[in-house]
Amino acid sequence: MFKKVLSIGLLSAFMASMPLQTLAYSYEDTDVEHLQTTKNAKIDLVKITPGGNVIQKENNLVVNFAQNFNSKYYKTGDYVQFVFDNDLKTTEGTLLIPCNSSLIAKITCIEPPKWFSRNAKVFMEFTHILLPDGTNIPVCVELANKKKYLQEGAKETAGKIAAYTIAIGGVGSGLGAAIGVAAGHTITGLIIGGSIGGGVGLVTGVVSPGLHYKAKKGEKVMLELQDNLKLPVK
Fold it and tell me: Please, which residues bridge with residue 52 across strands?
């Protein structure tokens, strides 16, 4: 009994004499790497383990539309394919997701365009990543924007309104010219007609239905992981 107590005491004394950093060994230099990501990402940490690499939640992923997309021709329940156009690696060189892997999303809701230039909204649930070798990996990820849905922006909306303004403005100029000719004042008619037509076009563009959401093949989409993503070692 005395020998056992003595052994425990010696072991405790030995451990107490060891430097704190030796006891609390850190793996930071050996199993944590950093994702090649965007400057707006909240974190860039990736856990490297023999059993699989883990991209930590709140990292960003960038994918591309695999085909042209137009919300006019899609409905709730349809699937949309995105692709990784390049290998996703850590800055230290570890391959995480190979090029030509797919990210599959299911459309959960499409709100069509509404009057007063309110554009369509496309809501998606991103379900899984499909690697080129057929490996299927569940994923929990959302759009990395505040709205959490896809929608045409202010630039496209302004373009639509401008198109209405120009088109109807031209009609107004023609009508004004006709009135002006009848009154013997062609130039005045053009000016009046242009002003009236442009104003009508502006109002028409504003109150008309908004735009469907469109994206070209290859267009980028930014995503944010909502949970850790574990990937097989490649």
Answer: 49
